[in-house]
Amino acid sequence: MYKLFYMPMCAASRAAKIILYEKKIVFDSINEPIWQRRIDFLKINPEGDLPVIIDDQNIKIVGYFSLAYYLDETNVGLNLIGDNALDRLEVRRLCRWLSNKFYKEVMDNIVEERVFKSLKGLGNPSSECLKAGRVNLKNHENYFEWLLKDRTFLAGEFFSLADIVYSAYMSTLDYLSEVSWERIGYTKKWYAKIKSRPSFKDILKEKLFTIPASKHYQDLDF
Asked: Which helix (H) or strand (E) holds 54?
């Protein structure tokens, strides 16, 4: 059986979990607070980051991007990176945007500050970081809203890894009531479709003891 080293409210971990569900792979989730720098985990991934997946042949896979490509290249389940070179190029472009630019400008400033900073014992959120993250979020939302105006899914007319990653990030922000869905109607319609997929069911069950979910977080129809 596969093992997923994971952390609730970690968007990258959420993406890996959705990939495994979309591929219909049975797995165990292992909660791994990475700031504890657990020796046994560092032996698996010296980088000390999440997610990490160990497959049924004891192959170690680090990161959701590597996971999706490994499973697609070994013909496991639903194709998530596109059927042709142009589709794969667009999926890679969007995933790079989300993993680098979106993560640094939005997730680090909002989720890291509101969720993980206190868990790590580093004090209260920085108001400056939160302000910057919220401004950045609107800019990113505007771009993806523009894309979804003429596309069924993020990379085109096919469900892909790009949809998984963006929905994993947005679901984390939505839990924290950081998304103004009425401002981004095309994205709202897209997200309602994504979070209605069976692969998203477990994501919507996640809870934090210290922060309640937004009222519509589990509502498939908002």
From this structure: strand 52-54
Domains of the chain, start order: 2-73 (3.40.30.10), 85-205 (1.20.1050.10)
Question: What span, in angstroms and rounded, lies between the C-alpha atoms of 107 and 190?
Answer: 20
Query: How many residues belong to the chain?
Result: 222
Confidence check: pLDDT of 123 > 90: no
- C-beta of residue 95 within 8 angstroms of C-beta of residue 169: no
Residue 138 to residue 109: CA distance in whole angstroms: 13
Q: Counting Cβ atoms within 10 Å, is residue 133 exposed (0-12), middle (13-18) or buried (19+)?
A: buried
**What pLDDT, in 10s, does the model give residues 167-218?**
999 999 999 999 999 999 999 999 999 999 999 999 999 888 788 899 899 8
Name the band, by pLDDT with cuts 50, 70 and 90, for residue 220: confident
CA dihedral 81, 84, 85, 91 (to 10 degrees): -30
